[in-house]
Amino acid sequence: MHPILARAERLASYLAAWLVVAVLLAAVLTRQGLTWPEALALLLPICLVYAFVCLSAWYVCRATPLTTSGVMRVLASSGLAAVVASGLWIGLARAWMSVLGTWPAIGPTAGQYGDHEPLLFAAGVLLFLLALTVHYLLLAFEFAREAERRQLQLEVLAREAELRALRAQLDPHFLYNSLNSISALTAVDPAGARRMCVLLADFLRDTLSVSSRDQIPLAEELALTDRFLGIEQVRFGERLQVERHVDAAAARCRVPPLLLQPLVENAVTHGIAGLLEGGVIRLDVARQQGRLSIAIENPRDADTPATTRRGVGLDNVRQRLTAMFGGDARLETRADPERFRVELALPCFTDE
Length: 352
Hints:
Elements: H1 8-30, H2 36-54, H3 57-63, H4 71-100, H5 110-188, H6 190-211, E1 216-217, H7 218-236, E2 240-246, E3 254-255, H8 261-269, E4 279-288, E5 291-299, H9 312-325, E6 330-335, E7 339-347
Parallel strand pairs: 2-4
Antiparallel strand pairs: 1-3, 4-5, 5-7, 6-7
């Protein structure tokens, strides 16, 4: 549909502009012998009708786009369309003059009109060419906006594909570690292994319910983390302790699903599992000035040699944050001889 006809306010503005054109043309004719009433009686009706004729310039522009048509073709089609449209305008003016002839006191006489017909024809050609120029600009604007919209869609699709790939990377990694834990329990604690299988099934069912969403409330993410820690506590017993400090206002912030699980898993696998006496995993969550801060800290064996290998879980979380928030989110780690700390900072968006 024509963009001007698509919205009533655009059409009203367009017709108002043509009324201004009619007044300007009337001013020209008054300098050539017509009175203001005669000039306006002639021009106002035919200008408003010609305004709709000039809307056909939109289809001429679409038929001969500047990007794919040669210069000569554009000039030829524009000139031909302008002459045809102006010819229609002159025919309309003659028909309107026959109507005005029945009210000689209102409009100009046929003789007076004949003197001004060449001027009106030239004005019709120029006005149609102006309409073509405006419509080419509208098409260029529409093309630029469509290109921008396609670019945004491609960026969204790329981000979604990246997030799906990262989630696909995360799931086997988690299952591999969980199944190893169950395997370790089957020989020493069969009942615990069965209980861990049930907890793992519940956890996977919960993760499936949120995996289709881009973001979930932090409260749901913490609940998933608690289920995961419940699985690991079957294996480690009292060796695994959890200390949480969560700002109530932060619980409403939305985060990517399974954001904390790989970090907590690292804290268990590379921290608690390497200590005979176990230890405490500390989780601190705070919200301040539209930002969400999350810190996960775990003990580590001071005698464990340093490794240059980057963990899958940390890389996964870092890439997901970058894909979703860009430079507005960050993940930092700090390794002391006896402690390892992961800090997240990201924007806090809520449903409120």
